[in-house]
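Lecture notes, unit on protein representations.

Consider one protein chain, 274 amino acids long.
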Amino acid sequence: MEIVKIPKKLRDVLDTLRSGQIESGLAQLAEIAAFEPQKSIVLAEYNYFSSNFELAMENDEKALPFDGQWYAGNILSEHFFAYTSAAISSNHQQRAADFYKTYLAEKKKLDLEDHRFNTYKHQVNQHLAKLKGKKNLTIDPAPLQIIKNGKEMPDFIAQLKKYKPKLTHDSLKGAEYLLGFMFEEGNTDESLAYYEKFAEELTNEDSHLHAARLFLLAGEPEKAKTAIRNYVKIWYPVEYIQITPMRLWEFEDLYPILTREFKEEILRIPKAKA
């Protein structure tokens, strides 16, 4: 299956959707002929974030078997997370299990290279386990915890001076270097305060996602939402057909704040052009 080139007319529609003009973009998308798997990916993303889970599952069932038509592997992995979540929340575990098994059986017929087929097999088996209620699987992000007695700011300043002597801790570049270490090893309250100081300028997606997860653990859902908004504003699609950050579905600990209203808001936040 060859990569399908997206024409400018369709790219323009996708830019409209990413800009937050959802109704206008969907109307234009409906007028585009052909490119059915690509349009189904777009509609799946829209429907997941509109809480239309059965429609989203239907869209993905039509689209994902044609994943060879685009090059970005994160589309498949991220949609699998959303598809599994939708199946569980709508009590369609058996439907999803049947889809996954059929999907893998069809891939096996293609006589793919072993490493590629094994990647598909691993993902499918992990999601079949997730459908059965298993947690902390190898595809899941590592759990986070609140740290009370971790490293303090002087420790991280010393680390910065040692490994990045040209940076300072009160600069954006210094913060972008330090935050990953601080979230994992530092006192959570101090790390989150440091994050907030630079949050509007940070370009590292992981910093915003990590902060959102920690804010939620700390009992501050509104600050968690603010961190997600910051993430969405800098989110950049790998492929034209990605219109919204599907990666959010990987983090089950964020699900409590991914309400219908907040997901609708996310859809309408202007995002980067592909």
